[in-house]
């Protein structure tokens, strides 16, 4: 048996938070947040580090309480009409070691009542990085197809994200991979069940899903000029 990191109380806390999204309620339930969400998530991140290193030594699982792989639960409301102070999900990202310097791929885990999923790839890359990925796709179409259309990948992952309305500069509308070249996001995701999240097999399952995404993430990592 493996370690059970997350419990049904995590989902109960987030559902209650959705109905009581204010600082006073959260302050009164800070202990529940620490016990059922923050501490288990940091343990998960810490234990995943060794597994991630075997997939690639250049991606990071950082269990620091601030600035690490666990996203803050506090929302940034400075430029939002929605002033509710807290996020209604638990998010974790495992990014390339160079992610603070350049737009780089990563793995992502979202835990949320009714919307659990994990993702891989590069979301909303800057223009330079997006064109580098498009160039890599055009220069190595077979490599891209193996990475994004291979059976082990597509059995669980679906490519998604926004796309350009028109072909990007330098590419014809009749290019055989035009749909991929028009992508603004180079991401893939797979949905997860709550029962998977709370299982003692979840660490193994998450590692397995990440492993299946390795060719996809490796292609994107090389495309933006980084080591995998």
Write up this protein.
The chain is built from 10 helices and 5 strands. The chain is α+β, with helices and mostly antiparallel strands. It has a single domain, classed as BirA Bifunctional Protein, domain 2 (2-Layer Sandwich), CATH 3.30.930.20. The protein has a 5-stranded antiparallel sheet with strand order 1-2-3-5-4. A hairpin with a 4-residue loop joins strand 2 and strand 3. The longest helix is centred in the first third of the chain and has 26 residues. The protein is globular and about 60 Å long. The two termini are 31 Å apart.
Major pleated sheet: 5 strands, antiparallel
Number of domains: 1
Could you give me the name of the CATH homologous superfamily?
Answer: Protein of unknown function DUF1054
Q: Write the H/E string, N to C.
A: HHHEEEHHHEHEHHH
Main sheet strand line-up: 1-2-3-5-4
Number of β-strand runs: 5
Report strand %: 5-15%
What's the quick description here?
The protein is α+β, with helices and mostly antiparallel strands and 228 residues long. It contains ten helices and five strands.
Write out key terms for the chains shown:
5 strands, globular, five-stranded antiparallel sheet, 13% strand, alpha+beta, 228 residues, BirA Bifunctional Protein, domain 2
Reconstruct the topology from this structure.
Layout: H1 8-19, H2 23-28, H3 30-55, E1 90-95, E2 106-111, E3 116-122, H4 127-139, H5 141-149, H6 151-154, E4 158-160, H7 178-181, E5 186-192, H8 194-197, H9 202-212, H10 214-223
Helix pairs in contact: 3-9, 4-5, 5-10
């Amino acid at each position: 048996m493996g370690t059970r990191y997350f419990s049904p109380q995590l989902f109960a806390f987030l559902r209650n938070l959705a109905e009581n999204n204010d600082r006073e309620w959260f302050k009164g339930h800070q202990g529940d947040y620490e016990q059922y969400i923050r501490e288990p998530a940091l343990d998960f991140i810490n234990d995943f580090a060794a597994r991630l290193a075997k997939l690639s030594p250049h991606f990071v699982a950082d269990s620091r309480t601030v600035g690490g792989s666990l996203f803050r639960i506090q929302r940034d409301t400075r430029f939002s009409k929605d002033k509710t102070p807290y996020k209604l999900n638990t998010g974790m990202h495992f990014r390339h070691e160079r992610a603070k310097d350049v737009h780089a791929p990563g793995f992502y885990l979202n835990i949320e009542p009714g919307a659990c999923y994990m993702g891989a790839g590069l979301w909303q890359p800057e223009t330079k990085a997006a064109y580098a990925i498009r160039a890599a796709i055009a220069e190595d179409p077979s490599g891209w197809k193996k990475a994004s259309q291979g059976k082990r990948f597509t059995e669980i992952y679906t490519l998604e994200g926004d796309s350009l309305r028109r072909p990007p500069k330098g590419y014809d509308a009749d290019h055989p991979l035009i749909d991929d070249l028009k992508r603004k996001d180079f991401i893939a995701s797979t949905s997860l069940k709550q029962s998977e999240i709370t299982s003692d097999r979840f660490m193994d399952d998450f590692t397995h899903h990440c492993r299946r995404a390795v060719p996809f993430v490796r292609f994107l990592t090389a495309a933006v000029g980084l080591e995998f």
